[in-house]
Design brief:
The chain is mainly beta and about 100 residues long. The protein contains no helices and ten strands. Part of the 50S ribosomal subunit. Contacts protein L20. One of its GO terms (biological process) is translation.
């Protein structure tokens, strides 16, 4: 059994026991429980994509991580304009504990 969950603007395939990285959850500390919204559930031959109001994927917060450093550079020719900016996305690692319909 696995489910497709929505976390932020992304969707991920999860099963019980998986550890995934989702966009940072501000008020979550290590050991807290988080509920992720479900888009689709697959249980063997049964695929459920509608009527998932009561479906939930429960996950436990494992810790927090950071993504790779991304360097953004802007440059305009012959004007002397150049700008350099960096970004590093923050993530929360969660372990899926339960998938319920």
């Amino acid at each position: 059994m696995y489910a497709i969950v929505r976390s932020g603007s992304k969707q991920q395939k999860v099963a019980v026991g998986d550890v995934i990285e989702i966009d940072r959850v501000a008020d979550a500390t290590e050991g807290d429980s988080v509920t992720l919204p479900v888009v689709m559930v697959v249980d063997g031959e049964t695929v459920t994509a509608t009527g998932l109001d009561k479906a939930a994927v429960k996950a436990e917060v494992v810790g927090s991580t950071k993504g790779p450093k991304i360097v953004i550079q802007k440059y305009k020719n012959k004007t002397g304009y150049k700008k350099r900016q960096g970004h590093r996305q923050k993530y929360t690692q969660v372990k899926v504990t339960d998938i319920s319909l």
